[in-house]
């Protein structure tokens, strides 16, 4: 895996934002990363987010797993505490080019 991969859960807005994040991450030169764009509408959505994070790590053991979206915004500490997670990005940061540039540079 080289180009960033985005896994979006939930609403159409998440799907659209996922595509935008893929472009920003790719444009910043972020490599070997899986971005999980989470949903918090239901407990099931949060559970599915955790499953996707674990699967991303299992299927891409060398990749960075970056979590964003509503579930990550609501409970950033819980997602940060997951050993599979490399970084958590708040909703206010996820569509900013500088966020992805910082991640591509290895910080954040």
Q: Strand content of the residues, in percent?
A: 15-25%
Distance between the termini: 21 Å
What's the helix count? 5
Rg to the nearest angstrom?
12 Å
CATH class, named Alpha Beta
Number of strand elements: 4
Poorly predicted sequence stretches spanning 5 or more consecutive residues: none
Sheet with the most strands, sense and barrel status? 4 strands, parallel
Kindly list the characteristics that best describe this protein:
single chain; 108 residues; alpha/beta; Rossmann fold; four-stranded parallel sheet; 5 helices; 4 strands
What would you note in describing this structure?
This protein is an alpha/beta fold. The protein has a single domain (about 5-90), classed as Methylthiotransferase, N-terminal domain (Rossmann fold), CATH 3.40.50.12160. It is about 50% helix and about 15% strand. It has a four-stranded parallel sheet with strand order 1-2-3-4, with helices on both faces. α1 (about 10-30) packs across α5. About 35% of the residues are buried.
Give a brief outline of the structure.
This protein is of the alpha/beta class. It has helices at 12-28, 43-59, 70-74, 76-80, 97-104; strands spanning 5-8, 33-38, 64-69, 87-88.
Topology:
Blueprint: E1 5-8, H1 12-28, E2 33-38, H2 43-59, E3 64-69, H3 70-74, H4 76-80, E4 87-88, H5 97-104
Parallel strand pairs: 1-2, 2-3, 3-4
Helix pairs in contact: 1-5
